[in-house]
Amino acid sequence: MIYNNAEWFMSAKSQLLYSLILSMSISACGSSSSSPEPKEPESPIEQPEPEPPVEPPPEPTIPEPELPSYVVVGDSEYPYCGADDSDPDGDGWGWTGSESCVVRNSAADPDGDGSGILSPVPVADMLLTSELVNPLATSTTKAVFEYLHSIFGKQILSGQQDLTWKDSTDMYQRVINDTGKAPAIMGYDFMNYGVFSGDGGSGKSQTEEAITHWQRGGLVTFAWHWRDPSGGNGWPEFYTDRTEFRIPMDGDSLDMDSEAFEQMEADIEIIAAELQKLQAHDIPVLWRPLHEASGGWFWWGASGPQAQIALWQYLYDKLTNYYQLNNLIWVWNGQHADWYPGDEYVDIASMDVYATAQQYGAEAHSYASVQQFSHHSKLIAMSENNNMPDPDAMAEENAWWLYFTVWNDGSSAEGLTDPNNFWTGEYYNTAEHKQHVYGHELVITLDELPSFQPSPNFP
């Protein structure tokens, strides 16, 4: 049989390729016939035992810092208030016992570190009321008020309270003995005037003593520790816890049909007669009744703000319009804005300031508080005090009190240092401080007052 060349070539090529593949397969099978020796299984690696978690060391116990009991404000110290309700207006300043206090962590001491904050309003920023609330005031009374306006924010009048219940103690002379100068203002008290009065015959010459001080060129202020008009239990008292007498009220108004009201009227008539004696001598009176009412320790403050406001407004109307007393400069001393009777009843706003002994700051926080009492700015006075404010501090802190009035001494001998002696001795005002204040160019003493008399237009 004869083959085509192409077919022969393909057949030969196929055989050659087949032989090659077969040879490769045999080689592969021969190389895989000897299997490798099996290996021993490897032992697992032992893992170390996990260590127990380490407890963090306990945090050290840091003792609570001891909280300060007093706040330093300017050059003075004030205690923290015992309760938040000591500060009903929320300004950070309250009243405890007989002194100002600071509410902890308040605006006055926000971080509670014992360092307080002042925010007095400059006198220059105040729009002062220049007219007396009584349009019929005597010309001499107007002259005194104009003078008070002229010095306000520039100087301060020196003042001293008389010892009402012991006539033999001459507070005016004690000031002269210690400073060589006389106080411009003397303070008197109708404590032992009225239907019922105490302390025997002492304290019944206050009107005559005031006339004497005016005639030697001084100014006079009167307070009224109003004894229980009902007579109490045989010994008339003015402290709330020693008398049951209260302002008689019918709703928000005085109960004028009550026996208590009639008893008050009888006392008012007696006091009006004394004030008329002073008016007859053309003597203006810085008149400060119903003082420290918000403290609650006097019966006229025991029934709350509205009762005191009603009594103040009635007293103003009675003395001004019924008894026609036109020689009074009305000094309000309620100590708290809630007790303010209204601008139309007040000529001067004041505060009684009793701070830690021998703290001679300007009492700028008290000053700033009084500024907020009235709607129209009034002159501001320190109507009672233990420590005399340093005039340099007043100027620096811009707390320009119109006058100060150091409270009186106790019954001890002159010169004795004792907490009951507010002037004599050195418990509150050292000998050096007395000389500093009374000799200061910013402090007006008796010899520096102008003459307010005679009054040519006085009838």
UniProtKB/TrEMBL annotation:
The lineage of its organism: Bacteria, Pseudomonadati, Pseudomonadota, Gammaproteobacteria, Alteromonadales. InterPro entries: CBM10, CBM10/Dockerin_dom, CBM10_sf, GH, GH26_dom, Glyco_hydro_26. One of its GO terms (molecular function) is cellulose binding. It comes from the Bacteria. Signal peptide: none annotated. It comes from Neiella marina. The keyword Hydrolase applies. Residues 50-66 have a biased composition (Pro residues). Residues 29-69 are annotated as: Disordered. The active site is at residues 292, 384. This is Beta-mannosidase. Residues 139-447 form the GH26 domain. Keywords: Glycosidase, Hydrolase.
